[in-house]
Amino acid sequence: MTISFLKGAIAATLVASAGCHAAALTRRNLSFGGTDWHKYIRSPDKSIVKPRSSLSANTTGGVVNPDGLFGTKGSPTILTRKDGRDDIPSLVIDFGQNVVGIVSIDFAGSTNSSEGLRGLRLAFSETKQFLTNTSDFTRSDNMQASSSGPHILICLRIAVANYPYTWKDHIGCQHDNKVCSDGLHGFRYLKIWLDAITGDAPYTQPYGSVSISNIELEWSAYLGTADTFTGWFECSDEDITQWWFDGVYTADMGTDTFLANETDPRDSATPTLEGKEVLFDGAKRDRDPYVGDLGVAALTAYLSHDNPDAVRNILADLAEHQRDDGWIPPASINNYTLDLYDYPMWWIVCTVDLVMYTGDTSFARQYYNVMKKSLDNYYGQNLTSTSGLLNKTNGYGDYAFLPLSGIITYYNALYAHALKSAAQLAKVFGHDTDEQTWTSRASDINNKLLARNWDSSVGAFYDGGPCPNKPGDTICDVHAQDGNSLAVLAGTVNSSQAISLLDYYGRRTARSYGNAFYDNDALQEGFSERVYAFFSYFELAARFVTPGAAGSAFEEVKRLYGWMSTHDPEVTFWEGNGPDGSPHEEGFTSMAHGWSTGIVPLMSNYVLGIKPTGPGFETWEICPVIDGGDLTWARGQVGTPKGPVRVSWKKEDDGTFVLDIETPKGTSGVVCVPTHGFKNGQVIIDGKPIESASDAATVGPSATSGEEYVVIKAEGGTHAISVGA
Ligand SMILES: *[C@@H]1O[C@H](CO)[C@@H](O)[C@H](O)[C@H]1NC(C)=O
Ligand SMILES: *[C@@H]1O[C@H](CO)[C@@H](O)[C@H](O)[C@H]1NC(C)=O
Ligand SMILES: *[C@@H]1O[C@H](CO)[C@@H](O)[C@H](O)[C@H]1NC(C)=O
Ligand SMILES: *[C@@H]1O[C@H](CO)[C@@H](O)[C@H](O)[C@H]1NC(C)=O
Ligand SMILES: *[C@@H]1O[C@H](CO)[C@@H](O)[C@H](O)[C@H]1NC(C)=O
Ligand SMILES: *[C@@H]1O[C@H](CO)[C@@H](O)[C@H](O)[C@H]1NC(C)=O
Ligand SMILES: *[C@@H]1O[C@H](CO)[C@@H](O)[C@H](O)[C@H]1NC(C)=O
Ligand SMILES: *[C@@H]1O[C@H](CO)[C@@H](O)[C@H](O)[C@H]1NC(C)=O
Ligand SMILES: CC(=O)N[C@H]1CO[C@H](CO)[C@@H](O)[C@@H]1O
């Protein structure tokens, strides 16, 4: 075994522990964990999902045996209404948590009459609050706005035949434009009632009796059962552990087959995606995969299951639809023409992530020129000669359709971030000129952005554009989460500026349900009350990489994920929160949105500290954040093409820190451990102390919580490290 100290860079070299004998220094080996974590999994255990209960407070009218649909099968549930003097019989069924798929109902018969069949109506909702007599969202809502497609499917009706049969919620109508069902739903609650609307005459009758013997859901999305997990996470805080699995479940609910009859009807259907598995933005809407959302959702997918096709299919399809000027569509919606300014840059970041997590270099080789054309043509040509920064002048939107123009911090920091990601890939491929050009352009953007948009009066970045209704180049006095967070991750700022902007931002925007995405309402009413878990991920990541800021990350995580997990529908994470933490776009809001699952990469990449530094984890770093929060231990694994990377760390009662790692043979990387001041003999690796290293302790690549870290080079295999109190 060789341990060497390279002052100022790498403090020690750690090779596989074979042949290393150190009898004197014993330590307890940590467990990488058994199957305890299975209890946190939210997925149904099979693809037929039964409801859990009915909301008894919501049963109205003549309903016999409302609980017949749950637990052990008894006699059917019967809805009866003799005439207009009777209340409408209705019941509300609760699936216990958000689910997605196609509902079917077994009818045990119904009375009929010469006037027609009994009418049954259904309405779905993710929340009780937005459960009414129309679904909180259906694809037919968008059909009103669509140029093509039927304009008929306002809500869901069934004409119940009088013999036993199974009805399935396939999209379509029982008669021309009448008695229609609207297909797949993401929902938790289902309201069922006996009624008819005049528009369906003469096919349904609002009176009579309907018997239901069974209701179930055919799960349509990725079924994330225990055997599908290639990565997992567990820590001493059970809430945080549960949120990690809730995040995975949220992304799983959006991982599904792209089908014309189930996607957003606004010209999203496309033959090049039809039948392919994709990662959608939301389980109930828009069911069109958007590339910016993948900036978070794809990481969740890689870190939990070995299913990268759902991401690769999207990246490939959007690349194939690149516009001649280099712009890449954000999604297939509007026949690939939805004008977003930031999403092409997310395509680049996501493509580099795909390579790093899955090792799919052939994909990146195939689309390398797509990336280059977007960076150099589309954005490169927009760097104005005066400022050398992106100056947005067109009417394009972004992840939140923000009314922005001018030299915006977010777009420029994202450009620097995308350039740096692309330079990493150029390096892998040996494209030295690109690597140098993109690295130096990123650094130039960073310097100019800092010079132009840094607000020294508060120590954070301005958003950068003029205030609405105040045209001209005067910078509006408003600061945003997106630009400030990305500026930290893109290296626009040094550590003291990062500490300053995070401190300012946290103080000014903290709400009980997360940090708002703007610090005031200068751009639009309500912005200072709106929270996007999506961009909060980047703010939280910035806190985890900034010295001394990890504590504020844990505190924000508890507000953000704590809020969503304790408010209806619980379990899944929401697209956005508005005033008082409510869904920001009411019933339209998706309550299971993959972009809000940042808790998964935050815990796996920062708290376990596992990150790829080369394609497919050929090289890696393990730099856990252990201080700042209340955690006393964490463990888990990340799946890689060569096998799992496992980490287990613990702070012992006596102050000793112990870390066990296991990485695939044939890989190599670096491990960072806190030195606790680094006294001689304190850091013990595979039973052997590191000696006379007090000068060599360095701050690692992911310097965390202000501690000094020793950075150790390691070969693949099993290693045990401990640091004395
Ligand atoms: C701890 O783990 C190492 C590496 O797997 C192994 O060689 C050693 O025997 C273990 N020690 C104990 C006390 O179990
Ligand atoms: C369910 O019952 C509650 C309590 O009575 C009521 O506030 C709510 O409006 C009802 N919801 C529906 C969909 O009927
Ligand atoms: C009503 O039921 C009778 C017998 O049960 C059947 O002959 C008739 O076709 C039914 N009417 C309709 C509209 O289904
Ligand atoms: C829904 O219910 C409201 C009031 O309860 C009623 O005014 C409205 O007409 C109903 N809409 C439909 C489509 O049934
Ligand atoms: C959409 O079409 C597919 C393939 O034809 C079918 O399997 C699926 O059930 C349909 N979905 C709905 C909601 O009707
Ligand atoms: C979508 O755009 C392509 C290319 O511009 C065109 O060929 C195609 O007809 C369009 N499809 C629809 C449904 O408008
Ligand atoms: C951005 O471009 C617009 C339109 O060309 C121009 O009016 C404005 O002065 C530019 N802003 C800066 C800061 O260069
Ligand atoms: C960061 O940059 C500012 C402005 O140039 C400088 O005053 C400060 O000392 C720098 N901090 C660090 C840690 O380099
Ligand atoms: C946002 C923006 O200013 N886009 C411009 C970038 O450059 C191209 C080519 O000059 C213009 O067509 C875009 O409008």
From TrEMBL:
GO molecular function annotations of the record: catalytic activity
Signal peptide: 1-22
Record key words, sorted: Signal
GO biological process: carbohydrate metabolic process
Parts forming coiled coils: none
Residue ranges of every copy of the Alpha-L-rhamnosidase C-terminal domain listed in the record: 609-676
DNA repair keyword on record: no
Pfam family, one: Bac_rhamnosid_C
InterPro entries: 6-hairpin_glycosidase_sf (IPR008928), 6hp_glycosidase-like_sf (IPR012341), Bac_rhamnosid6H (IPR035396), Bac_rhamnosid_C (IPR035398)
Domain Alpha-L-rhamnosidase six-hairpin glycosidase residue range list: 278-493
Keyword match Signal: yes
Protein name: Alpha-L-rhamnosidase
Source organism per UniProt: Penicillium argentinense
UniProt lineage: Eukaryota, Fungi, Dikarya, Ascomycota, Pezizomycotina
